Amino acid sequence: MSDNNQWTSVCDASDLISNIGVCAQINGKQIAIFQLEANGTTNLYGIDNQDPFSGSNVLSRGLVGDLKGHDVVASPIYKQHFDLSTGKCLEDDSVTLKVYPVRSNEGKIEVAA
After folding, report:
1. Does residue 2 fall inside a structural domain?
2. Residue 1 belongs to a domain
3. pLDDT the model gives residue 2
4. Which burial class, exposed, middle or buried, applies to 90 when counting CB atoms under 10 A from its CB (0-12, 13-18, 19+)?
5. How many other CB atoms are found less than 10 A from the CB of residue 27?
6. Which domain CATH number covers 67?
7. pTM summary value
8. Would you say residue 59 lies in a domain?
9. What confidence tier does 97 reach under pLDDT thresholds 50, 70, 90?
10. Side-chain half-sphere of 94: how many Cα atoms within 13 Å?
11. Residue 109, class by beta-carbon neighbours within 10 Å (0-12 exposed, 13-18 middle, 19+ buried)?
12. Which one of 6, 19, 47, 70 is at 20 to 30 Å from 109 when CA atoms are compared?
């Protein structure tokens, strides 16, 4: 991750709940942010909040989990699964969401967008 990223603070780290998404608006763009914890490791992810199949901004409300070794979110509308690391739709290889670097920095959650 390059230091040239423009980081934007979106919330306190304590505001995140594992396996529950939140939505942040940065520069007019909705970004779904997820914190997943497994085996003592915490991973932070950021993806477009807009479901490309319905056009609705709902992915932050999707169910998260592990599918075939991938951390994923399932769209609450049509149930497609999106890999949180790559943005790829597991049911349709031609669809990929934009992913955003997310970090915890001095108690704040920051997104590079």
Report:
1. no
2. no
3. 47
4. middle
5. 8
6. 2.102.10.10
7. 0.92
8. yes
9. very high
10. 1
11. buried
12. 70
Return d(Cα 50, Cα 14) in angstroms, integer: 25
Q: Residue 2 and residue 25: Cα distance in Å, rounded?
A: 22
Q: By the 8 A CB rule, do 95 and 87 touch? A: no
Domain count, the chain: 1
Beta strand 22-26 with 63-67 is: unpaired
For residue 96, the enclosing domain spans 7-112
Q: Which of 53, 50, 77, 52 is nearest to 63 (CA)?
A: 77
Please give the DSSP secondary-structure letter assigned to residue 13.
G
Q: Of all residues in the chain, what percent carry a pLDDT higher than 70?
A: 96
Q: Where are the beta strands (DSSP E) in the chain?
A: 7-12, 22-26, 29-38, 41-48, 63-67, 70-74, 81-83, 99-100, 102-105, 108-112
Q: Is residue 89 part of a domain?
A: yes
